[in-house]
Amino acid sequence: MSTILSLAPQNVWKHFYSLTQIPRPSGHLEKVTEFLVNFGKELGLETFVDEVGNVIIRKPATPGMENRKGVILQAHSDMVPQKNNDTVHDFEKDSIETYIDGDWVKAKGTTLGADNGLGVAAILAVLEAKDLKHGPLEALITADEETGMYGAFGLKPGVVNG
Fold first, then answer.
1. pTM greater than 0.70
2. Which single residue of 13, 27, 36, 115 has CA 20 to 30 Å from 54?
């Protein structure tokens, strides 16, 4: 039986898989925030968390593209914590168990977290890519979108430049 790690594009699905292993319900983003900060810092990129819990990672332009306009890649880190009545799952402690059903990626008895885990995974793939030509990039991973868009509403002017 294949797993989501066998899906293409593999660089996106490996990051999505990593996110499924990190509990990240709204209001409990400490672990995913730490993961994202470590990810950016391991790549040697400017990485920080703002006062409302948004993670910002900046990737400089590739040589020759420095004068291009900056682009912000945005997604949110939290997920809706819903499960079937007969499923035992603690969204603050347990990972999401994924499987492939035909053309669909699903979770066993819980929400999948693809909203917006796939957006975050795509951003992480872009940040680690060494074969893309681009101007300045900023990843803005907002906090607690599912319960009120608190990260987006709390973003201060001037924190991102794109």
1. yes
2. 13
